[in-house]
Amino acid sequence: MIKNASGQSIGAELVSSVDGTAFAGVVTVYITGDNGVQAIGTVWAGLCTNEGNWWYSYSPSQAETNYDHIAFAFTGSGAIPAGVQVFTDV
User: Fold this and answer.
1) 65: left (phi over 0), alpha (psi -120 to 50) or beta
2) DSSP state at residue 54
């Protein structure tokens, strides 16, 4: 991921905590930058886009990419949470 740049995307696969099938509910992303305080995503109140086949994507704001290390936590009621960590590059 490019540091301090808009127009990027990150995603994760989520599965149902009930039976392990593809999760098809509402997913929200929480972001932690440089080991700071975790906060809900600022774009669309952290709501992710269901791309189909288990995959959810989020397009972070420029400010949300202005870290050296970013942890994205994808959560949904009834889903097994998924975490994705990235290091940024300039």
Assistant:
1) alpha
2) T
d(CA 61, CA 81): 22
What distance in Å separates the CA atoms of residue 30 and residue 52, rounded to the nearest whole number?
A: 21
Pull the structure tokens for residue 70.
């970013």
Q: Residue 29 pLDDT > 90, yes or no?
A: yes
Number of neighbours of residue 56 by Cβ within 10 angstroms: 25
* Tens of pLDDT, residues 1-28: 999 999 999 999 999 999 999 999 999 9
Q: Write out the two tokens for 14.
A: 């989520």
pTM for this model (two decimals) = 0.94
Q: In the numeric block, which tokens belong to residue 49? A: 């886009």
Using only C-alpha atoms, the chain has a radius of gyration, in whole angstroms, of 13
In the DSSP assignment, the letter for residue 3 is: T
Q: Please spell the DSSP secondary structure of 71-83, one letter per residue.
A: EEEEE-TTEE-EE
